[in-house]
Amino acid sequence: MVDVTSPEYLAQSKVASIIVCNAILISCSGVAMAVRLFVRSRFLSGIGWDDSFCLIGYIFTFVECLVCILMTNYGYGHHIQTILQNEHKMSMFLKLDFVTEITYLIALWAVKVSFGLFYLKIFPGRTIRVLCWILIILVTAEWIEETFVVIFQCSPVQKAWDASGKVSGKCLQLLSFYYISFAVRLATDLAIFILPLPELLRLKMPLGKRLGLILMFGLGLLIVVTSIIRATYLNNFSTDHTWELVNPLNWSSVEIGVGVFIACVPSFKALITFCFPSLKHVLGLSSDRSYGPQYELYGASGRRTDDPRSWHGKSQNNTKLNTITRTNVEASRNTSEERIISHTQEGIHVTTDVSVDRVSKPVDTHLHSWHEDD
Q: Where are the transmembrane segments (predicted)?
């Protein structure tokens, strides 16, 4: 029988693991989020709705992790006997615990919606778009229902953090609710990361690259794993709440932190492609299809440019090439047409048509006509 009043028992602490876990999650997910926003705003089409929801997910992940660290000042990570006689600390611990429940739900919802919106951006097929919208609606409905239950688990609401026992009312026992929510959440998690696999398998690209994309999306299954691990701790609660809550709350932070990080993984490939082109071949990120070294549709920034310094090439007779490029890009359902024309000079003119049917397909380049000026 453990003596809960012994100095050795009361001196036990999990504070270090709490601080380290949450600090790492804040840092790693923060760097990933910064990379995503930088790549999208600097090299790609700009910040979209999927990026905005991912940012919301990171903000609430940051708040969740920060609150967990602050809770260590109010008994979190120690045995509850250390604060039983301190009503202020006990009340603050319960209030902050209440906050973590809300921030966890918001962060998880925002990250899942971000994945759904990202799929809508890159997969134009009607079936997958309908499934994505259904999934987004289900995830949102799940979030609203869970948030409502958590907020109003006690009547009146403030009884949830009443440490004095002076507030009359009653609270629900949420263990059964947590297990039901876990089952629903697990189903939506699996759906999110299985949904794009058929589209990826149909892509016309080398097997190695296809497997790489599948692996990248498959990383999302880590969220499922962390969710399962978190669920195993739900029945371990006892009267020693400040001590027993550490493991499930740490895994809650890991779940949403990993979710944000994985949502940002595609941006790392784009960052390497644009900023460190020499690493593309080393990491196997370069395209197997060559469009020739003489023609580039993108300047150093990755955006279309008419800067003559971004166009290379001479004919075998050292004749200067003037390039007229017509670009028609259709991504998902959005269409933009931009014409890039170099300054008219004497020499050989090259007209190039480039069409992109979808983001997930390789670019088909056709040299339509060559003509020499008189």
A: 15-39, 51-76, 102-120, 127-144, 177-201, 213-234
